TrEMBL record:
Record protein name field: Beta-lactamase class A
Gene Ontology molecular-function annotations: beta-lactamase activity
Record-annotated Putative amidase domain positions: 497-657
Domain of life: Bacteria
Organism name: Caldanaerobius fijiensis DSM 17918
Transmembrane segments: 7-25
GO biological process: beta-lactam antibiotic catabolic process
Domain Beta-lactamase class A catalytic, chain residue ranges per copy: 74-276
């Protein structure tokens, strides 16, 4: 969907989604997402001299692999610890494809570090100058004149390899300026004859510059390296390596070209660039890159090269400052705040909340008033539905904190779990995931909230500014639904929609709303569009159409995910609604406001969908994952993460609901 936010939150929510999503949802298990550097500590009082390793056996092994598979490849390797290098065809020129986006974004971040560019600056999309099909989401959602911040564009250019985002930044920076910057870094083959050509050796040079930049500018460097480490494309260097490794890298492909280069932070970190062409196809090329990467990794960590065997250990340290003391300062205040918020949602007096906010500032006052509106909405909704909350508890995880002049910024994720009943003994449960960016200032001996920007399923998806729940209890009805649109030929198409797998997928990848074995992470096979419009429709499409873990609904030339990005019907709410109904894969059971669709709710099944329309636009999608004790549908969704939430919680009295049955 195209995310509609509150007026005062419209800019900041995008920033939060980008910052926090990469802290929590897309981080591989057991991976430190801060920038990593290496220092050497001796395990005894003796001083050990590290001799240059012998990479000739490794080079020979790779050469044999290249020969045996008749590859056209250029490779360059650098051991970060000793600066030892080796190469095979390292100066041979190859089409750079999307690997070129790294030095371009490095130039942008360098200008930002020098205060010559503000990453919050928004630039407008010019289709005539910026359009380029291929990777990314902007080709499906960007309209002429739409504005995006430089930070959002840089993030998308790296994480989803968005071609339009890259072209917009190139237009903003100027191609000649970019070329000069790359040559100043030491690049030898830089747009020769205006063509996007590079060498493996040049790419390693650019990655060395990224490391140097990150050490000199920890905050911006962390952002850049995290983007590269959390790209949706991982078919090359990381594919066969352990999941726990932190590997900032950038792939690129075009026809028979497959390239990848990056940093592998292991016991003995190294930089690696592998360029290939004349492959049967790009997928074949990436398989060879993955195999070569595995050969190099095994040699690097499993031979006598590892200095720990010689009494030296390598310690991986975040470049970011140690913020544990900051977290210890504000954690008790935040715990008290969230305890009071939870009690207020259950009906207790919320007036004590004002003691936690800096009411002398405009944003502090707004944050406090927003909490009161939120509490009023939830208590009104629960009263209207005859719901009683029996327990609300939160898991508040501080992901990152830092001092900025006289304030503290805290980036955190809150998982709020609620138990409720209908004034009977049948207990129900739901969870929501909330991503926070909180600024706190010290007033006397207390730390107060000056800003609290967050995505919240309780009222954030709706475009209505003063959201009010519809009146009325949930009702049970035996009225048969009227099928407004259907296609009787659907059975003749010969497919089966696996509802059980679709629901299981929705639960497994629910995000921050409920802890599963995926540890609050989305499926990293797909891009996360939270920061540039919303991920709800992309998530529902995954539930329906993922061929391995999802429902297996057949994809086609209109509704598809091509391994890099989803089609317009895959990622846009109104397009998906139209596609499902007119393709016959979905049937519209009912459409209307709360009281107009209630009689039709029992016609829905797990794996069916609910679309949410406001101001004549479908703005959100959710998938039905079950029914509670009163046979009321509960749903899961993304952007604002939901897990088994009653279908109408968070929506306005004027919201129009589409009840869509999935055929098959």
């Amino acid at each position: 969907m195209l995310l509609h936010n509150r007026v005062l939150l419209s800019i900041t929510i995008t920033i939060i989604c980008i910052l926090v999503a990469f802290f929590i949802i897309r981080i591989p298990a057991n991976t430190n997402n801060a920038i990593t550097s290496v220092k050497i500590e001796t395990q005894t009082e003796q001083t050990y001299k590290i001799s240059k390793p012998d990479y000739e056996p490794l080079k020979q092994k790779i050469a044999e692999y290249i020969s045996a598979n008749k590859l056209s490849a250029g490779i360059y390797f650098k051991d970060i610890t000793t600066n030892t290098t080796f190469g095979i065809n390292e100066d041979k020129m190859f089409v750079a494809a999307s690997t070129i986006k790294v030095p371009i974004m490095l130039y942008l971040y360098t200008l930002a570090a020098e205060k010559k560019v503000d990453l919050n600056t928004k630039i407008a999309y010019d289709r005539e100058k910026d359009f380029e099909s291929g990777a990314g989401i902007l080709e499906y959602i960007a309209k002429q004149g739409d504005k995006y911040s430089l930070r959002t564009l840089a993030n998308q250019a790296i994480t989803t390899s968005d071609n339009i985002a890259n072209r917009m930044i190139m237009r903003y920076l100027g191609k000649e300026n970019i070329i000069k910057f790359m040559k100043d870094l030491g690049g030898q083959t830089v747009y020769p004859g205006g063509k996007n050509i590079t060498t493996a050796k040049d790419l390693v040079t650019y990655m060395e510059a990224v490391i140097a930049f990150s050490k000199a500018n920890p905050e911006l460097g962390e952002t850049f390296l995290n983007d590269m480490a959390h790209t949706v494309y991982n078919a090359g260097i990381p594919a066969l390596l352990p999941d726990k490794l932190f590997i900032p890298h950038k792939e690129g492909d075009l026809d028979d070209v497959a390239n990848d280069f990056g940093i592998v932070y292991c016991q003995r970190p190294y930089i690696l660039a592998i360029l290939t062409n004349k492959n049967k196809n790009a997928d074949t090329g990436f398989k060879h890159i993955a195999n070569i990467s595995k050969i190099i990794y095994d040699y690097q960590v499993n031979t006598g090269l590892n200095a720990s065997n010689s009494g030296i250990k390598y310690v991986f340290n975040p470049i970011t400052p140690d913020n544990q003391d900051i977290s210890n300062i504000i954690a008790p205040e935040l715990k008290n705040l969230f305890d009071i918020k939870a009690k207020a949602l259950m009906g207790s007096d919320g007036k004590k909340l004002k003691d936690f906010f800096d009411l002398s500032s405009t944003y502090g006052k707004y944050a406090y008033e927003h909490e009161l509106r939120r509490i009023h909405y939830v208590t009104s909704w629960s009263k209207n539905r005859n719901i009683r909350f029996t327990d609300i508890y939160t898991d508040f995880r501080i992901i990152f904190s830092e001092r900025k002049s006289d304030s503290i910024w805290i980036y955190a994720v809150e998982t709020m779990n609620a138990r409720y009943d209908y004034n009977d003994d049948a207990e129900n449960f739901f969870g929501i995931g909330i991503r926070h960016a909180i600024q706190m200032v010290q007033k006397g001996e207390k730390w107060l909230i000056k800003k609290d920007w967050y995505t919240d399923p309780l009222d954030e998806d709706t475009v209505v500014q003063d959201v009010t729940p519809a009146s009325g209890l949930y009702i049970e009805s035996d009225v048969l639904p009227k099928i407004l649109k259907t296609n009787d030929n659907i059975k003749a198409k010969g497919y089966i929609y696996n509802r059980e797998k679709a629901v299981k997928y929705a639960d497994l990848y629910n995000g921050g709303a409920y802890l599963t074995e995926k540890k609050h992470r989305y499926n990293q096979k797909y891009p996360d569009y939270t920061g540039i419009g919303g991920d709800c429709t992309n998530f529902v499409s995954q539930c329906l159409g993922d061929p391995e873990e999802g429902g297996g609904l057949p994809q086609d030339y209109i509704w598809f995910f091509d391994g890099k990005a989803g089609s317009k019907a895959w990622v846009q709410a109104d397009s998906l609604a139209n596609y499902l109904l007119y393709s016959g894969k979905g049937s519209l059971i009912a459409r209307g406001r709360f009281n107009e669709v209630q009689n039709h709710l029992k016609s829905l099944m797990p794996g069916d969908l609910i679309a949410y329309e406001e101001k004549n636009d479908v703005v959100h999608f959710a998938i039905i994952t079950g029914f509670n004790s009163k046979s009321i549908p509960v749903v899961n969704s993304h952007t604002s993460d939901r897990y088994h939430v009653p279908w109408d919680l968070g929506w306005d009295k004027n919201t129009v609901f589409w009840l869509i049955h999935i055929n098959g």
